[in-house]
C-alpha cells in the first residue's frame, strides 16, 4: 500500500481517540494529588480590598488558600507579551502588569484572585465559594471604541487613554494621494465579531513538585510545551529551565487558545511547591468561556480607490483592536504582523496604509484564534472588493481577476513577499466546481419558491509557516520561529521522529510518518512520532500559524538527509562498495545494480555494534536538525458560497460551499480536506452564529453554550473541496499550510452571498435570522 506523499492514509492516532484511549491532562493520576479551584472576580473592574480565607481554611480537607500577595512575594513574575510593537511616534507598547493571581485590582470577569488547594475537586470548588473577597467596584468598559473615548474607565495606570500602541504600516501620503486621484472610491466600516475558541477539551494542568530534586513537572493542555517551559522559567521565574519538565499529552483541540501560558499553569506549579502536593486543575466550560483567550474583535474602516479601468490604486485602513484586560504572549503580533501585512490580499496594490490602535478593555485577553489576524484581513479585503464590484457594476469575479497578482515573487507594500501562486487557477476551478454559470437559473427557480438566492466570493491569501527569523528580525518583533527534529534509527531498524511540533488534532502522527516511511521505504507502523515532552524532544516552537508541515516537516527532511548520508557510509563500508553507488530502495539499502543489500535492521545493528563501522565513524544512528524557513508560505484560494434566504424569517441556508485551495504539495489529501472542513465550519460559525457578548458593564453575557451558538451539523453544507496547487519554492517538500485556510477564507464568502441575496450590503456578522430579516426590511 502506498503510504507516501499524496496517499490518503487513515490517521494512525485515531485508533486511540475513537476507542476512548487518548490520554489527556485530566487523565493524569499521580500520588499525593490535590486539586485547585480558583476564586474569580465577579466584577469586570474592581479594587481588591481584602480576602477572608478563614471559612474556606476551616473546611476539612482544604489544604491551603493562596493569594496574589503570596505569589508575588515568592518572586513569581508577571505574565507578559513577548512581541514588541513600536508606536508610530517611536514609543514602546504600554504593557500593564498581569499577575497570575491579582494583587490589588481585578480587570475582567473571571480574573483570578486566589486559589484553593483541597483534597478533592468538589471540595476545592465549594471552598472557593467560601472565600470572601471584599471588592470596591470600579467603572468598566468592554468596547474598544468606547475605551478610547475621553473619560473612559482606565484599565491600566500606565496606558493612558487605554492605548497600548498606535502603529502604522505602509505609506500614508502615497495612499492618500492615490485615493484622492481615484476614479471611484469605495468605503466600508465593519466589525469582526469576537469569538470564543471552544476546543472540545477544556484547559487543564497537573503540577508535580519534587522537593528532593527541587524539580517541577507540568502536564498541560499546550500547543507548544517547550515555549511554555521557556517562558515559565525565563519570564515567570517559576523554576530554572533544567528543573522544569513540561508535557503536553493528547490535547483535544486548541485552535490557538492553548498557545499561551495562563495564570492557572503558573499558579498550579507554584502551589505544588508551596503545599507539597501535586496540584491538578481542570477548567469547566464556564471557566473556558470566561478565561480562554478570545479571538478577533476588530472595528475597521477602509477606503479603496480604483482607476477608470477598475484597477486598484490605493487601500487605506484604520483598525481598532480590542486586546482585553491584559496582553498575552503573542497578542501584539495578531493585529499587526499577522493582519496588516496581509491587506494586499491577492491583489496588485501599489499603495496601502494601515493604522492599528490596540486598546485595553475590561474583557478577557484577546489573542490568536484559528487564523489570528489573517481572517480579519481577509474579511476586510474581500468584503470591500465585493462592495466595490456592486458599486462599480462589475462582476465580482471579474473585478478580482482584473486586479490579481500574476507575476511572482511579488513584493507587496506591506512587507510580505509572495513567493508563488496562481490565483486565477483557483478562481477558475472554484467557479467551474460551483457551477457559477448555472447560478442565474437556480436563483430564478428559488425566486419561484419565494426564496432569495445569493452567491458570494472570497479570494483569500494568508501567510503560514510562521515565522522566518529574517522576517521576524526585520520587523523588530522578537524571536525567529524555526523548528527542530531528531530522526533516530533504532538498532532493530525502526524509526522514531522527535519533533518540536505538537499535534492536537492535525494528524501529525500520520503525515509526519508518511514522509519518513516513503523516504526510507519502511512500513508506516515502523515509524513513531514523539512529541509534546520537553524531556524527550530537544527543543521546539510548537504548533500554530499552520507551520508544522512547512516548518516542522522540513526539519525532519533535513535530519533525514543527515541520516541518509550516514546510512550510505555504513552500507558502503559493510557491503564494500563506493558510497556513491549506495541507494535506498524498496525498504533496503543497496548497491545499485547488484543484489548486495542490507535491511534497515542490519543497518541499525551495524550502527550500534561499533565493530561494523568505518574506523573514523561514531557509533549510533540519530541526527537532529533545526530548520529556519527562508520565507512564509502563502496558501491561497477562492471560496464560493451559495445561500438561500427565507425573506419571511431571515433564515439562511448554505446550499453549496465550494473551495479551491492552493496548499502546495499535499501530503495526505484526506487530512487536508478534514482541516479545510473544520476551518470552514468555524468560519461559517463566525459568519452566521458565534459572538461573544459583554454588556455595558463588561459582564460576560455569553457564558455557556446556551448563549453562544456553535455551528452544528445541520448548519453546515456538504463541502465541495478542490485543489489547484503551485509548489512552494521555499521548503524541501513544497508545502504550504492548510490548517487555518477554511477559517480565513469562508466568513466573507458567506456574508457576500447573503448580502447578494437580500440586496443590502449593510449586514454584520453574525448574520442571525433577526439581523438578516432586519436587513431585508431595511432594503425594502
Ligand atoms: N498537511 C498536508 N499537506 C499540506 C499541508 C498540511 O498533508 N500541504 C497536513 C500536515 O502534515 C498536518 C495537517 O495537514 O498533518 C495540518 O498541517 P499545517 O497546515 O502545517 O498546520 P499545523 O499542523 O501547524 O496545525 C496548526 C493549525 C492551526 S494554526 C490551527 S489554529 C488549528 C489547525 O491547525 N487548530 C486545530 N487545525 C486544527 N485541527 C484540530 N483538529 N484541532 C485544532 O486545534
From TrEMBL:
<keyword id="KW-0500">Molybdenum</keyword>
<dbReference type="InterPro" id="IPR008274">
    <property type="entry name" value="AldOxase/xan_DH_MoCoBD1"/>
</dbReference>
<keyword id="KW-0560">Oxidoreductase</keyword>
<protein>
    <submittedName>
        <fullName>Carbon-monoxide dehydrogenase large subunit</fullName>
    </submittedName>
</protein>
<dbReference type="InterPro" id="IPR000674">
    <property type="entry name" value="Ald_Oxase/Xan_DH_a/b"/>
</dbReference>
<dbReference type="InterPro" id="IPR046867">
    <property type="entry name" value="AldOxase/xan_DH_MoCoBD2"/>
</dbReference>
<feature type="domain" description="Aldehyde oxidase/xanthine dehydrogenase a/b hammerhead">
    <location>
        <begin position="19"/>
        <end position="139"/>
    </location>
</feature>
<dbReference type="InterPro" id="IPR036856">
    <property type="entry name" value="Ald_Oxase/Xan_DH_a/b_sf"/>
</dbReference>
<dbReference type="InterPro" id="IPR037165">
    <property type="entry name" value="AldOxase/xan_DH_Mopterin-bd_sf"/>
</dbReference>
<dbReference type="Pfam" id="PF01315">
    <property type="entry name" value="Ald_Xan_dh_C"/>
</dbReference>
<dbReference type="Pfam" id="PF02738">
    <property type="entry name" value="MoCoBD_1"/>
</dbReference>
<dbReference type="InterPro" id="IPR016208">
    <property type="entry name" value="Ald_Oxase/xanthine_DH-like"/>
</dbReference>
<dbReference type="Pfam" id="PF20256">
    <property type="entry name" value="MoCoBD_2"/>
</dbReference>
